Amino acid sequence: MRRSISNFATGLSEAWSLAKPYFLSEERWPAIGLLVAIISLNLLLVGLNLTLTYWNNDFFNAIQAYDAHTVWHLLIYPLTTIHGAKQMPGFAEIVLIYIVVAVYALYLNQMLQIKWRQWLTTHYIENWLTDRAYYNISLSHTASAVVDNPDQRISDDLRDFTANSLSLGLDFISNVVTLVSFVSVLYVISGSITLFGITIPGYMLWVALLYSLVGTVFTHFIGRKLVPLSFNQQRVEADFRYGLIRIRDNPEAIALYRGEGDEQVTLTEHFRAVRENWWAIMRRTKALNFFTIGFAQIANIFPLVVILPRYFAKQIGLGGLSQIPMVFGQVQGAFSWFITSYQNLVTWRATVSRLHGFREAMEAARAASASGPQRQNPAAALVLDNLTLTLPDGRKLLDHASLTLPPGETVIVTGPSGSGKSTLFRAIAGIWPFGTGSITPPRGSVLFLPQRPYFPNGNLKRSVVYPAMEADVTDADAIAALNAFGLGHLVPRLGEIANWGQILSGGEQQRLALARALIAKPDWLFLDEATSALDPALAAQAQETLRTALPGTTIVSISHHETTVTGGRHVTLADGVLSPS
């Protein structure tokens, strides 16, 4: 019990740390204004509910007294004088105001939800991309295990967090105000009862409190295990979805390998985890629902049974008999808020935990981007000084290497597979956080082309000019770049939107990536096996095209084989040693 209370207390602390930045941001005043308006409308609904209980009392007392005049006035007229004293608003008036208030309370709630979600989404995406947090998280097995499926956390979890936080928070405030508003009413109208010679004033209030307390204890005891189950359900659902996405993104490779059987086994295993965790949730929810549904049904009749002796003793009228269960229900419902909201609290707690863990992982990943080899101010030459590169597990790939590459040369870095050439490529790019020593990057614009090109969503021109903006490059320049690498047949499809990473062959993809260099015209161009999918003759032709079209560009190529790139200076990386020839 104590551990579960501590868990929810931690959840509140984490939730506040997630919510506070928005309500202290540049959008704080519109956000606070909306929140105040929503709270005010919800409190007005509480007041209308309280008014309805008094209206109900007068209405049924009039029925009991066969006072048709008062009955019809209470139904139709805006105001009715009761017994020549108090003024009671009519039912039509109360209901009309209630409808308008309820509609705008929900409308403004949804407005705040989308504004809050938009702000959170913008900042989470920014934090995920800043300092390559997304990349550093993927490098760490521990972090990636903790932060599974960041796409789901940004899309689904942020949506659920804003919606559930507002829903639960406003519901809690409304219940607190309901409790304060109805407690005194219930205390007064319930009268007193004598048990074992002891007179208990306002006894219905104490009955409501005891009834709700017992229900809360049993609800928490039965449902406390739903918190970890709900957290795990979000994880396994995302894993299953990710498996489906992998098949969607790699259909050709799977088809060529005839890997359908293996993929089916993998998807079946992922869904088995979904099913088994869901069954665990079902069993726990069934036990919880047996209690909560029974608790709610008994609560409908329980106050009536308790108050009937006073009615039969003619201590209260029909109006009082009708009003007391309504007021009791409001008080007992407010006391039992934890019971009725338990499953929503469980889901909300799991969402908060996932978002909080994701934020901490992003902060740690951004901090990690500052570690690793020290980057000096750019200079004319690329300089590696006493550079050591390691894998995340600490295994060395490069040991205390020093090298200077002046501008204007063509450099070919070779070595056996797995020797660390691509890791050196990443370190020079400034994205590898594991290692020591220093790197002085070259001055001027730099472009890195990896072995496997990336294709953004959109039309073919966007893929050709990436990472430049499509509007900043003319169609003529994009067409010239395609023609330079023998991709003229793609020119008519320049404006076509398609999944180009799947449509183009491996060789076409690499040649299109090389075309980006002609668009960017960098001072330094780094190629990591960028022609590995081309035959030797076509690879040599592509290299010559680059040298001819970019005469002022220093080209550094990483290759498994020295014959892939001809001419220039050769550097070999093997057994952790960098050896210039």
Which tags fit this structure?
alpha/beta, 581 residues, four-stranded mixed β-sheet, 20 helices
User: Order of strands across the biggest sheet?
Assistant: 10-11-12-8-13-14
The general outline is elongated
Radius of gyration: 35 Å
Which parts are unreliable, with pLDDT below 50 for 5 consecutive residues or more?
Answer: none
What structural category do the secondary elements indicate? alpha/beta
Largest sheet entry: 6 strands, mixed
The rounded distance between the terminal residues' Cα atoms is 70 Å
- The helix content, as a percent range, equals 55-70%
**What is the mean predicted local confidence, pLDDT?**
85
Write a short abstract of this structure.
This protein is an alpha/beta fold.
Describe this structure in words.
The protein is of the alpha/beta class and 581 residues long. It has helices at 2-23, 28-64, 68-76, 91-129, 133-139, 141-146, 150-189, 203-223, 226-249, 251-257, 260-312, 318-335, 337-340, 342-368, 421-429, 460-465, 475-484, 500-503, 506-520, 536-549, and strands at residues 79-82, 86-89, 192-195, 198-201, 374-375, 382-390, 396-405, 410-414, 435-440, 446-449, 524-528, 554-559, 569-574, 577-580. The strands form four sheets. A six-stranded mixed beta sheet has the order 10-11-12-8-13-14, with helices on both faces. A four-stranded mixed beta sheet has the order 5-9-6-7, with helices on one face. The longest helix has 53 residues, at 260-312. It is elongated, with a radius of gyration of 35 Å. The N and C termini lie far apart (70 Å).
